[in-house]
Write a structure and sequence with these properties.
Strand content: 15-25%
Strand order of the largest sheet: 3-2-1-4-5
CATH superfamily of the largest domain: ATPase, nucleotide binding domain
Distance between the termini: 30 Å
Helix content: 40-55%
Number of domains: 2
CATH architecture of the largest domain: 2-Layer Sandwich
Structural class: alpha/beta
Shape: globular
Number of strands: 10
Largest sheet: 5 strands, mixed
Length: 339
Amino acid sequence: MSITILGIESSCDDTSAAVIRDGVILSNFIANQDVHAKYGGVVPELASRAHQQNIIPVVDRAITEAGISKSDIDAVAFTRGPGLLGSLLVGTSFAKGFALANNIPLIEVNHLQAHILSLFIKETDKNIETPDFPFLCLLVSGGNSQLIVIRDYFDMDIIGQTIDDAAGEAFDKCAKVIGLPYPGGPVVDKYAKLGNPDAIAFNKPKIQGLDYSFSGLKTSFLYHIRDSIKINPNYIEDNLYDLCASLQKTIIDILMGKLRRAVRETGITEIGLAGGVSANSGLRNALLADAGKRNWKVHIPPVKYTTDNAAMIAITGYFKFLNKDFVGQDVAPQARMDV
């Protein structure tokens, strides 16, 4: 018997709904919120209000594009956390109402686990190459930078993580310093292709073990800009591409250095990349280059499944459905959750 899952994602500023049947994606629709651009970051109250406006049309479109009816859905999966509490409340409340109205099970999903399990989304019913267990996952996003050993779909151990800021935050905050629009990460990636990655040396923190730190890099970047502008008021405009290329290289070097160490310490050469920053072309190229040199087997999701999306929620819900891992109507969202 086929299993059809409706997934709902509302952890931050994207409202998304997706339908997956037997692990194969039927639809995945995302409504973005442009209102935050002028503020240089996500405004939680505005995000939750926009989710309330978007959730019904987004779910309706996902069901329509999947070519199914509500009666075909076997369960609804939703992001419980981590994320912005107001945003999570909208998705959680809608999912609870939808499940109750249609008398179907409710499945809570950890947003971070879902990023990892996006590596298992199928776009056709044909066999695709997915990671073999155990594998190492480098999970990098705006709020998280983690190295995780994945032993099974829901058996995950964090072996390294940021002790302060995440890689995605470093991209966005540094981009803001030089006047780039929000979100800054994709713009930095675009401009980095036109610059010299070795033009400027920024500080790389020396953190013991497999943990990360990016706050020192942000400070180094800020001081470099401040001091350079004193000498040349047009420094940013004159060196924009080199600034982006050098910043991106530094962040990638930090991430890849810890990943190489994790491979040495665990002996695991099956590698997955996940999270919003996994869309960065420089990081993807660096990982593929190392894979060729070090005989790693690398798995990288399509770019459309790297940022926040409901397809990853639905695939996680599918695996949880197989385990009969359901929750009751008393479930509440959580702003903070570990993998």
